Write a sequence for this structure.
């Protein structure tokens, strides 16, 4: 079972769309707290939803997969370390019991968990998919 992740920062629309198509993604799960910012370019909710519709890819915005506003602010302003962010965010995912929705998100689809970060190394989307894999070890994670 393939599960992918992608960040849209520093990607052209062509690169973004080609990566999704190449990996046969048919559901994008937006893990951002805010998905309407002008800074998001083509990844603003309405634009992204339209682009994905043209590619025949389903779009879901899942706030249960986003950090809280306070936690997001703390990591951006370097008030917490990555390790502290990781621990707090994983606790949050556990409290939200996101594992109960694995079948809703994955099921018979090739999902792609989306956020803004260019690379997954210090990104909450990586934490989300690794957390979910603990409940379904069949998941093979591919970062696009």
């Amino acid at each position: 079972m393939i599960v992918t992740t992608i960040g849209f920062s520093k990607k052209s629309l062509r690169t973004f769309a080609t990566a999704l198509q190449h990996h046969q993604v048919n559901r994008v799960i937006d893990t951002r707290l805010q998905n309407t910012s002008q800074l998001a370019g083509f990844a603003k909710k309405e634009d992204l939803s339209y682009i994905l519709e043209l590619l025949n890819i389903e779009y879901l915005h899942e706030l249960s997969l986003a950090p809280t506003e306070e936690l997001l602010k703390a990591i951006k302003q370097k008030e917490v370390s990555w390790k502290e962010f990781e621990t707090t965010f994983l606790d949050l995912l556990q409290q939200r019991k996101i594992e109960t929705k694995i079948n809703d998100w994955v099921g018979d689809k090739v999902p792609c968990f989306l956020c803004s970060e260019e690379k997954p190394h210090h990104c909450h989307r990586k934490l989300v998919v690794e957390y979910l894999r603990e409940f379904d070890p069949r998941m093979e994670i591919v970062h696009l």
